Each structure stands twice: as structure tokens, then as C-alpha cells.
Input
Amino acid sequence: MAKEAKKRLFIKVTRENLPQVKDKYPFLYLERGRLEIDDSSVKWIDCENNVVRIPAAVINTLLLGPGTSITHEAVKVLAAANCNVCWVGEDSLLFYAAGQSPTSDSRNLRSQMLLAADKKKSLEVARRMFAMRFPQEDLAGKSLKEMMGMEGHRVRALYKDLAEKYKVGWKGRSYKPGKMEMSDVTNQVLTSANAALYGILTSSVYSLGYSPHIGFIHSGSPLPFIYDLADLYKKDLCIDLAFALTLEMGGRYNKHTVSEAFRSRVVAIDLLDRIAKDIQHVLYGD
Output
């Protein structure tokens, strides 16, 4: 009996019984260390040789910051567990690239492509996206160009209203790639929050089996579907945050404050759960 009690029970994990995206822990940020395999589990060895086991199957995305290395075998195990890997800047506030995770089938990708290829259905998807942001507007019969014009006017009005609300000086959106520090604090927070939002959306879109490259409003950019979706959440997650933090930080950019505040807002609105439901709604009207 003693020998039987010591036997280890192995349960084969299949793709069908892996946790769904909405049930997973949203993300885990790692920097300055190494990810590798020990037996069949992923382990993290930090710069002080501390070892931490990574429960890859219940983590939606691993965000790898500066000073991180990862072995080929670790990538294979993470992909099999449907755990996305994103390469990001310090504190995960800048998104650089994501590994493409395999999904159980291409059904969602195929339906997304069919919708995008049909002009009438593509416009219906775009209209549902605008309707989520402007529920009081009658969008029936409006073209994509007309709706984008409405959006531009409303976003400019939103910037003005928030600047007045938080008593922040605002001279317009400004961002120079690679020279973020040359912008004012409000623009720096906006850039950082937007980048973090793009990272979360990209990992979620990959996990759900859709493509970030097939959009319905934006086009000619690297991640048009991500930019389409990001506009659903930017008002509260990024724009309001930028003006609120400018006032709170007294005009001095603090990346730790930005990171903590952004993370709190993401958790508060249960963003991952909303993403899955919102994609279903905008694509199919469910």
C-alpha cells in the first residue's frame, strides 16, 4: 500500500480541456532571466538564479521584457499550452512583437476573412464597432468615411473635455517614434497605455484564432484589427488615464505609476472577458 500511495498520477492534458482565454490569468511579465524546460514544465531562472515554475496552461500571455532569453523547447511547450509570447519593452509598456500561437482550427480566421472580403458585411461589422462607441447616434445608411469623420470629431472633443475636466494644458496628439520623451506627459502616458493595450489585444486575438492583420475600419497598417478593437476601449483605459495621471504626477512622467494605474483599470473592467464577447458581437452581431 505504501508503494501504491507513492505512485504519481499522470493525466493527459488535451487541447479541449485547456482553460479558455477568459478563464486564464491575463498576463505575466518577466525580465532579466531565462525561460527553459525542466522535464515537461516551463521554469523561469531569474538573474539571481532563483527558479520559479510557470503554470503555462493557465496564463494567457507571457510578456518578455529586456534581458530575457528563451529556449526553443520552452517555446514549443508554451505554444502547445496556447500560451502566447509577446516581446515588450521595460515594464511591458511597449509592444514589439508576438509569437503566433497555433489554435485548434482555422474556423474563426476563415469567418473573419469572409466578412472582410464582403463589402456589405465588412461595413456592417464596422457599423457595429462605431455603434458600441456612439450608442446614441443613428448610423443607418452612413458610409465608412462618414462614420470615421464622426469619430475624428468626437475624439478631438473628448481630448478637449478631459483637458478641461483635469485642468491639463493640451496642444494635440503628438508622438515621434523612438523619441517618446520629446512629447509632453499626457502624450507619453497615451503612447505607453496604447502600446500596452495593443499588446493585450494582440495576444487575445491570436489566442481566439483570429488575425490581427484583417481589419474592418483601419487598413494599410501592421495591425488593423487591433487598432479597430483598441478604439472600443481607449476612452477609459488610455485617454482618460492620460489626463488623470498628468494631474496626479504633477507633470513628471513616471512609468511605474502609469503601469500600475493601467493594470488596475484593465483588471477593473475584466478586459479579457470583454474582448472575447465584444469580438463575437462586432463580427456576428451576437
